[in-house]
Known about the structure:
Layout: H1 19-41, H2 51-56, H3 74-77, H4 93-96, E1 105-110, E2 116-119, H5 120-124, E3 130-137, E4 142-152, H6 153-160, E5 168-173, E6 192-196, H7 197-200, E7 206-211, E8 214-215, E9 225-227, E10 240-246, H8 253-257, E11 281-284, E12 290-292, H9 300-303
Parallel strand pairs: 1-10, 4-11
Antiparallel strand pairs: 1-2, 3-4, 4-7, 5-6, 5-10, 7-8, 7-9, 11-12
The chain binds ligand MTE and molybdenum atom.
Amino acid sequence: MLITRLRGWDKPGRAVTSENAFFSRRSAMGAFAAAGAVAGLGVAGIRPASAADETASIPASAMRFDPGRPLTPSNVAETYNNFYEFSTDKDLWQMAQAFPQRPWSITFDGMVEKPFTIGLDDLLKQVQIEERVYRHRCVEAWAMTVPWSGFPLAKLVALAKPTSSAKYMIFTSDEDPKVMPGLGGFMPWPYLEGLTIAEASNELAFIATGLYGKPMPPQNGGPIRLVVPWKYGFKSGKSIVKVSFSDKQPDTFWAQLSPDEYGFWANVNPAVPHPRWSQAQERLIGTDQIVATQIYNGYGEWVSSLYAGMPQTRKLFM
Ligand SMILES: Nc1nc2c(c(=O)[nH]1)N[C@H]1C(S)=C(S)[C@@H](COP(=O)(O)O)O[C@H]1N2
Ligand SMILES: [Mo]
């Protein structure tokens, strides 16, 4: 018998809306939740940045890929970052406040019907914003769970109109030497990442323009970044200015730096160690908890079919 299982994604009633409407509705909900917390505690005027408080303002539709663990508090996720254009230290968030987020435009080129450049606000008029809570697993064995807002990457593929011979979608991050002291040196800037078009079209692949119901903080990759939750975090390029299509697998930033440590596929797998450390467990930032890592970061139900026809070697997981 064929049983059609209703996956989280297919559930009716998921909220999608324009970016402006999204952020104003979401901040109204946040204010409501905060007011409730304040009334409950009887501490007028103080808004506790507690994780429970933030969880209360997450719409149910954002939980359809149930993360099975608590949200990371926003003040942790927004002050512990990897963004090497600024610094290799995690506390770069203050420095990143100088990063201009507008005007912003994105160029689409390579194997597309017709190359074009579009302003970010014009692009956002063509999409509907929704919210998704995902786990994020860094190759350095830390993890966070955060509510991203944005739209499916598949929508960007459709808007770009790649030709039928294109196989890869390639993302280039901004280089702004006025505000990014980490540029230069021996690293192969700009930061460049890529996915196959099949991966980019998977329902989990996401383009995020917001975090915790607010526009994406610059240190988290504002104003627009990739989110690929079943892969190690370095695949999720920040502050995207160019999207290219090709029939050749791109030479990505981390693969150029250290191909034996950071490959093209980089699918999360606890059984395949990084050459310098185990990947079996992960530390939840903002807590002292260590938990077991799951294959495909727990998203195998949605993504394992992408790799079914491929040799299941180390290469797929590093
Ligand atoms: N342009 C750019 N994108 C990047 C990085 C970077 O250094 N530069 N770091 C990556 C890594 S290793 C991770 S874990 C995530 C971190 O995202 P977060 O700071 O929002 O947690 O961004 C990824 N995207
Ligand atoms: Mo990472």
